[in-house]
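Researcher: We plan to redesign the surface later, but first we want a full-length starting point. Tokens attached.
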């Protein structure tokens, strides 16, 4: 009798479970809510992010507010490593991180000069930068043959496609009612990878997170120290307030 009841329950709920799974799989990819999950105090992540930036970004983008010496000090990079791996020919540790790309060449190749990325994470937010780097897709209609969900028609090509692979965006038509009239809008649904990259999904995600973490650090190199000092300042103010209240009570006790 017990086996019969269990079998009947399994037959009843299995289609519901399968339908729920299918419904979840069919849900559009919610890329707008992806989080970078920064941890600027993670030195190892910052070191990997610096490696990623100088390997894939420094050819076009500068960090005009960051000196090589400050970078080496904060990220615990030895002078020998700095000279061998990061410093361009003829540069000194006191120099700012500048791209070697000439402005005329940038305009000829991309249509505009690539922006300086010193404050990009502070201006747009780490989550936006993370979403931008993760949502490139193939688009033959653009000059770069690529497009982006976070920034439509960017001048920047999909420079990380050799790592992530080439993927296409699948859109679906959605009917929307506006002022009583029904219109059809094209909305993103999901990605389909057509050419695999050198990294799997988890490895590429780690690559992007480290890069965004580094750009977040560049926007304010002293932020970890600032937050640490801030805790002690707040504690001091609390203790000082307590002492001030005791002193007030002592001064005013005779008046009361």
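Model: Full-length starting sequence:
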């Amino acid at each position: 009798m017990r086996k019969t009841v269990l079998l009947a329950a399994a037959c009843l709920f299995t289609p519901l479970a399968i339908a729920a799974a299918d419904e979840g799989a069919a849900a559009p990819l919610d890329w707008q809510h992806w989080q970078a999950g920064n941890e600027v105090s993670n030195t190892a992540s910052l070191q990997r992010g610096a490696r990623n930036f100088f390997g894939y970004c420094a050819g076009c983008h500068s960090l005009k507010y960051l000196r090589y010496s400050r970078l080496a000090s904060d990220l615990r990079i030895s002078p020998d490593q700095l000279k061998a791996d990061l410093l361009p020919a003829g540069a000194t540790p006191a120099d700012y991180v500048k791209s070697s790309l000439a402005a005329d060449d940038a305009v000829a190749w991309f249509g505009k000069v690539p922006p300086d990325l010193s404050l990009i994470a502070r201006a747009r937010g780490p989550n936006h930068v993370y979403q931008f780097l993760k949502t490139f897709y193939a688009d033959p209609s653009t000059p770069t043959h690529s497009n982006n969900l976070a920034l439509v028609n960017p001048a920047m090509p999909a420079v990380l496609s050799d790592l992530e692979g080439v993927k296409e965006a699948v859109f679906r038509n959605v009917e929307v009612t506006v002022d009583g009239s029904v219109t059809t809008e094209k909305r993103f649904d999901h990605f389909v990878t057509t050419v695999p990259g050198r990294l799997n999904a988890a490895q590429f995600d780690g690559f992007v997170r480290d890069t965004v973490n580094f750009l977040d650090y560049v926007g304010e190199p002293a932020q970890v120290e600032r937050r640490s000092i801030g805790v002690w300042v707040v504690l001091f103010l609390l203790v000082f307030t307590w002492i001030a209240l005791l002193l007030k009570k002592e001064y005013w006790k005779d008046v009361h």
